[in-house]
Amino acid sequence: MKKYDVTGIGNALVDIEFKVTDQFFTDNAVEKGLMTLVDEDRQNALMAVINTEQAKKQCGGSAGNTVIAISQFGGKSYYSCRVANDELGHFYMNDMKDAGVSHNLNEGNLADGITGKCLVMVTEDAERTMNTFLGITETYSTADVDEAAIKDSQYLYIEGYLITSENGKQAMKHAKKVAEENGVKVAMTFSDPAMVKYFKEPMTEVIGASVDLLFANEEEAMIFTGKDNLLEAREELKKVAKHFVITQGKNGAMIYDGDTFIDIEPYSTTAIDSNGAGDMFAGAFMYGITNGHSYASSGKLASMASSKIVSQFGPRLQWHEAKDILAKLNP
């Protein structure tokens, strides 16, 4: 029996989430609805004009949010990441521990530098806009990949955001190779439309012949496949993924189980913040498939969990909320 259900690799970022108006974007030259990589000076300039006292701070990053979700539902997850020996680095390490996620961080291996931060700006229409300074996580490399944890997992989960640097791409390829050579299944998320739009070639290189499980939203699926409709895009995805999930926002999701397509209905909700919805969907789904649930049942769990996430502020459930969702799945 494997020690972990899922080992994730990705950018370790402290998420600083706050509400803004559309005027904020105009006043500060921020492009709405996208994840934009910025330098430290630009991020500091934005932080100077926000009310940080009202901002919500949590350890995160895309894969970080996903492995935390797995833990909250009762799964066993591990995170291989990189933070600095600074205040936010220690915050990240302790917050991950409190979330029940095992990790490769300890007091002796925190590097000199600055821990990455993601400013998550949420508007009244529930759309998220992110400005990210990667900091020390930009140097994440093959040396940070915990091979032992991967070998002792059912799944490796790879975050698409790592593709923006050459060392990150090599870490993705190395981790995938370790998994494949040891009979560990490989799951991957595209993470953001910008990743497949601007890094399609290296992303394709990482995917190689195929992955066992791919997560994408509608826009990412169509950009990556070069198709202008979802029916054609999903057929193309069969060439690179044995199984995949295409999330469709308020329209639910579509799952390919390797044989047939399964439509997952959405759950009625009032969206106030879309931050972390895709990460939560992936985490709940992966908890399901690694803990005896079918693809359909796992999709239902993921849809319930992500609908709950968008109805509140922040990318993480409360522990009791995760238990309540599981109880509804298995009344």
UniProtKB/TrEMBL annotation:
One of its GO terms (molecular function) is kinase activity. Residues 49-317 form the Carbohydrate kinase PfkB domain. Pfam families: PfkB. CDD domains: adenosine_kinase (cd01168). Keywords: Kinase, Transferase. It comes from the Bacteria. PROSITE patterns: PFKB_KINASES_2. Belongs to the carbohydrate kinase PfkB family. This is Sugar or nucleoside kinase, ribokinase family. It comes from Algoriphagus locisalis.
